[in-house]
Amino acid sequence: MSGKLMYMQIEQEIRERIRSGVYAPESQLPTENELGREFGVSRLTVSKSLANLVKENLISRTRGRGSFVNARRREAPESFADPVSEPGIFKFISPPYSNGDGMEHNRLLEGMNDAVRQQGYNISIDFFSSIDEELELLKNYTKPINNGFAVWPASDPATLEQLKIMQRDRFPFVQLDSYFEELNGNYLLTDSSAGARMAVRHLYGLGHREIAYLTAPLDRVSLSERFAGVLAGLAGAGLGIDGRIGVIPTSEEVNLHNIKERQLDFIRSWLDRQLGGRTPPTAIFCSNDTLAVSVFRLLEEKGVRVPDEISLVGFDNISAASWLPVPLTTVAHDFFRIGSLAGKILMQQRRDYNTLPIQYRVQPNLIVRKSTGPAPVK
User: What is the pLDDT of residues 5-55, one digit of tens each?
Assistant: First the structure.
């Protein structure tokens, strides 16, 4: 396995040890040489892994003393005090779902509404299909009726600059699905790494040892963490993934589930290479359900049966996942809880903007359907 993938695995393993309490808050980590011996890598590889954890504010490094686990961040809020009077609107600002699936939007909005309705706030949603459209929506923060935004932030410097302006002006907002480290602001994410590990464990438990992974571009925190979770899950099971990774080319549009023709061509070519290899995969895990649906259709065209010949897993639990001829096993977000926490965070910021930022990952669930089964006997 390449050095790049190895340092990501080590980084993820240390991150999990911190979150699980193996490395307690304010405790000292093993030395770089000790970690290098444990993982069988050079000290330089370990140092690169630790540098990324420093950026996440999980650890601190002091020359001559070593690396230490930082004190834990605040946990998810369970309740907030009453917000200020004269409530207006909290908006969810998001890309559209071109496949017509609005289930995740509905559940998130229901969660937000459940959290804020007794305080008199209203909930609305605005969609954008480009960076410029998102910027225009964010600039509306100056309108008196807007009390706070739950923002799906496009990965672009212009979006970051606009959020900095909003933060400077003390306008309440919380980032969803991804975040900018430079802001040190509120964000809520699905624990994508945990979800990916769930999927890998499920496939491993069914006897699969040749597992391929197809992912959307790694331009968001959620997708990067999903990828890291796959690597950690496979490494924990003693499995490799060299030659089994496919990364979809970047799309020019901001859209969660819109596969362009050139991207479909990439999937088709990648799948041909996987099926034609010396040890074809017995299972394919996709970073979102839309990719999994495309893979299912292509396997269907080739006469490859799911799950008899290849098991298939997605991520997101869109409605189409359960409509396939063979319903899709998938990782489901808890959008209602994410929405509820977002509403509470926005109310808290309305009441006191100087509170510590809430930075929290919500646990997903694995929904097992008929697209996964025992690994075929070879």
Answer: 677 778 888 888 887 778 888 888 998 888 888 888 888 888 888 887 887
Lay out the sheet containing 365-367: strands in order across.
245-247, 211-215, 283-286, 311-315, 329-332, 365-367
3-class secondary structure, 135: helix
Peptide bond into 307 cis (omega under 30): yes
- Distance from C-alpha of 261 to C-alpha of 348, rounded to nearest angstrom: 44
Residues 6+ apart with CB under 8 A from 254: 95, 128, 129, 130, 131, 134, 154
Helix 335-351 and helix 103-116, axial crossing angle in degrees, nearest 10: 40
DSSP class per residue in 281-339: -SEEEESSHHHHHHHHHHHHHTT--TTTT-EEEEES--THHHHSSSPPEEEE--HHHHH
CA distance 282 to 377: 10
Q: What's the alpha-carbon Rg for the chain, to the nearest Å? A: 22
What is the longest distance spanned by two Cα atoms in the chain?
67
What SS3 state is found at 78? coil
Across 60-85, b (16+ Cβ under 10 Å) vs e yields eeeeeeebbbeeeeeeebeebeebee
d(CA 89, CA 346): 11
HEC assignment per residue over 15-55: HHHHHHCCCCCCCECCCHHHHHHHHCCCHHHHHHHHHHHHH
Residue 161 CA to residue 32 CA, distance in Å, equals 36
Q: Quickly tell me which residue has 């504010």 as its tokens.
A: 57
pLDDT tens string 290-346: 899 999 999 999 999 999 999 999 999 988 888 899 999 999 999 999 999 999 999
Q: For the packed helices 221-236 and 192-205, what is the interaxial angle rounded to 10 degrees?
A: 30
